[in-house]
Specification:
Distance between the termini: 15 Å
Strand content: 5-15%
Structural class: mainly alpha
Oligomer: single chain
Radius of gyration: 15 Å
Helix content: 25-40%
Strand order of the largest sheet: 1-2
Largest sheet: 2 strands, antiparallel
Order of helices and strands: HHHEE
Length: 93
């Protein structure tokens, strides 16, 4: 299962592990909230943190997608541990 923070990593700066911030957006509060959400075990508290992040994202609109890409992956039955995250990056474990 993927974390809702996956898409938010597009807004994280270099200090946040696994970021994909190609827009050079920088907001220390967003970085802090992303890390809190990624480490919070309580689902209710985590959802509150994600709601705060969404409010900031809506207010500041640092990234506005102008297109979408369809991703297609074909993997042979004898190959294991290949998956694509919601952003469209492939991983091989």
């Amino acid at each position: 299962m993927h974390s809702p923070s996956q898409g938010l990593l597009l807004l994280a700066t270099g200090e946040v592990v696994g970021n994909g911030n190609f827009s050079f957006y920088k907001n220390p509060e967003v970085d802090k909230l992303i890390e809190l959400a990624r480490t919070e075990a309580n689902e209710e508290k985590r959802m509150e943190i994600y709601a705060q992040l969404q409010e900031i994202e809506l207010e500041e609109s640092p990234l506005i997608p102008i297109r979408t890409i369809d991703h297609l992956a074909v993997v042979a039955k004898d190959i294991d541990n290949v998956w694509m995250n919601p952003v469209g990056f492939f991983f091989f474990e």
